[in-house]
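Supplementary Text 2. Reproducibility record for the structural model of the 126-residue chain.

All settings were left at their defaults, and a single model was retained for analysis rather than an ensemble. We include the record here because the model underlies the residue-level annotations in Supplementary Table 4.
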Amino acid sequence: MEITERLNRAKQALERFSEVVNLQESNEFEKDSLFVRFEFTLELLLQCGRDYLRKKGTMDTTSSAGIVRALQANNLFSGQETATALKMVQTRNILAHTNDENEAKRLSGSIQTYYPLMQEWLKRMS
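Retained model, structure tokens:
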């Protein structure tokens, strides 16, 4: 898939994610939607990051954390932003493997704080 097409898909995913990220009161369906949209959007941003790095000729990793670190090395992220992006990856990994409802609820608050960086990430790659 061409990087422009993937960036457009990431933009659409981020718009869909924004629909649930700012809900004050959410039911179980909306919380599940938050998790799914977060995971989907992050995955697309990572794929765009990989494409961005390949285009610059600096891609040497396929792991999510490796992509985030490489984006920092290419000045797309500051040190603090890299730490936050790595927490996003960790949150996604926990969500993908947890069956603990209390853990998922705890993580939903973190997910909402990631949205501004996700917006900036997409903007910088576009």
